[in-house]
Write a structure and sequence with these properties.
Elements (H helix, E strand, L loop, with lengths): L3 E4 L6 H6 L1 H19 L15 H25 L3 E11 L2 E6 L4 E5 L3 E3 L3 E3 L12 E2 L1 H4 L8 E5 L3 H12 L3 E6 L10 H13 L3 E4 L1 E9 L2 E8 L7 E5 L1 E4 L3 E3 L6 H4 L22 E3 L10 H17 L11 E3 L4 E6 L2 H6 L4 E7 L4 H5 L6 E7 L5 E8 L2 H13 L4 H5 L9 H12 L6
Parallel strand pairs: 1-2, 5-16, 7-14, 8-9, 8-14, 9-10
Antiparallel strand pairs: 2-3, 3-4, 6-15, 11-12, 12-13, 17-18, 18-21, 19-20, 20-21
């Protein structure tokens, strides 16, 4: 195929690489190292003095990670003969993409197939004006010029918890305000509660069941007024130096002129597609954050592969029951498949197997044993229905479980596979054993 990629940012990699996954992980890694050096090294017999934060250098490290990867994609484009057009694309009619280039000129590209993969943008509260200095989105929170004394995070989801953790480690007093009665939407309820307790030990504060009614600039800071909407909600005013608005993301389709070409979107602005990612207009496809499903880079990647395979050969498939989710805090939280609440809601019969990292020799040796592994399997067949992990390196450990679910494995299948000792992965094996029989070491 002849392929042209239209991108208006000026840098390849989209939200994930430029202002999402990659820069946030760089800051999570750097802030964790700073926290360890400052607060934990002495317990390992390492004496330190004068550990100081050099925030500009930390930001330089972050930008280096981003620029290295973006330039790598450009190299891959050249290697695979992909034409790169810098500008914003619109679809005025079927088979046509009109690109507004950086200098304001227009370029029209004709194509038999058009794939919409424009990703998502920050969702905001209409009454709150984001200035990216004091009232910031996730984009602004990645580039703060100083550590705020007090940071309020509006939204207890993945992005808010990750960035809240970063600035908490660097010295900010962090308060998370969440409208619902729990954090980490999408995660298993038991894991989410355990996770919250772990974050509270790290001095993050939470107001659940709490609605933000106003955010107003007050001197050099902000006043946040809240209203209780749950049994343990908080009504009152919280003052902070910085506010992070992190209530989710929305599909970015604003400049595509989909109405002109007649592409259907739903009430949430998502492009409607069939099982082969084709819209109601033949030859126009969509994937990723602009369609239904979780807004995850790896989900988008799988959809991209599937839709191109479908266009090329008529076959392409994504197994949405085997798409992992990860929260890259410390400890990490990772899961794949159904939660216990979802299985109960459909009245399914199941078994649960759990194994704590406190009983895992590698975690204990590393003095990093917070969390557990939880398996949920079908009561009759032992087929794995979901796996939920809270612990260090959970995002790496979940891969084995995703592979198992992709091939329809049972918990016994994992339990009977030899896992190296001593490793964190033994906790996965033991939790799987607990689901179909019982663990050995707990």
């Amino acid at each position: 195929m002849k392929v042209t990629c239209v991108e208006g940012r000026g840098k390849l990699g989209g939200t994930c690489l430029n202002v999402g996954c990659i820069p946030s992980k760089a800051l999570l890694n750097a802030s964790h190292m700073y926290h360890e050096a400052k607060d934990s090294f002495s317990s390992y017999g390492i004496k330190t003095s004068g550990v100081e934060l050099d925030l500009p250098q930390m930001m330089k490290y972050k930008e280096g990670a981003v620029s290295g990867l973006t330039s790598g994609i450009e190299m891959l484009f050249k290697k695979n003969k992909v034409t790169y057009v810098k500008g914003y694309g619109a679809i005025p009619e079927k088979g046509k993409v009109e690109v507004t280039l950086a200098d304001g000129s227009k370029q029209t590209i004709s194509s038999k197939n058009i794939l919409i993969a424009t990703g998502s943008d920050v969702a905001s509260i209409p009454s709150i004006k984001i200035d990216e200095e004091v009232i910031v989105s996730s984009t602004g929170a990645l580039s703060l010029k100083k550590v705020p004394k007090k940071l309020v995070v509006i939204g207890g989801g993945v992005i808010g918890l990750e960035l809240g953790s970063v600035w908490s480690r660097l010295g900010a007093e962090v308060t998370v305000i969440e409208f619902t009665d729990r954090i980490a939407a999408g995660a298993d309820g038991e894991i989410a509660k355990t996770f919250q307790k772990s974050l509270e030990k790290q001095h993050l504060k939470f107001h659940l069941g709490t609605k933000v009614t106003s955010v107003e600039r007050k001197g050099d800071g902000v006043a946040i007024t809240t209203e209780s909407v749950g049994p343990n909600g908080f009504s009152g005013t919280i003052e902070a130096e910085t506010v992070l608005v992190s209530i989710g993301r929305r599909p970015f389709t604003d400049k595509l002129t989909l109405d002109k070409v007649g592409v259907n979107v739903d009430k949430r602005g998502r492009v409607e597609v069939d099982d082969h990612f084709q819209t109601n207009v033949s030859g126009i496809y969509a994937i990723g954050d602009v369609i239904r499903g979780p807004m995850l880079a790896h989900k988008s990647e799988e959809e991209g592969i599937a839709v191109v395979e479908h266009i090329h050969s008529g076959h392409g498939h994504v197994n949405y029951q085997a798409i992992p989710s990860v929260i890259y805090t410390h400890p990490e939280v990772a899961w794949v498949g159904e939660t216990e609440e979802e299985i109960k809601a459909r009245k399914g019969e199941y078994r649960v197997g759990k194994f704590p990292f406190k009983a895992n020799s590698r975690a204990r040796t590393n003095n990093d044993d917070d969390g557990l592994v939880k398996f949920i399997s079908d009561k009759a067949t032992d087929k794995i229905l979901g796996v939920h992990i809270m612990g260090t390196m959970a995002g790496e450990l979940i891969g084995e479980c995703v592979l198992a679910m992709e091939y329809g494995a049972s918990s016994e299948d994992i339990a009977r596979v030899c896992h190296a000792h001593p490793t964190l992965s033994e906790a996965v094996k033991e939790a799987a054993m607990a689901a179909y029989d019982k663990p050995i070491h707990f």
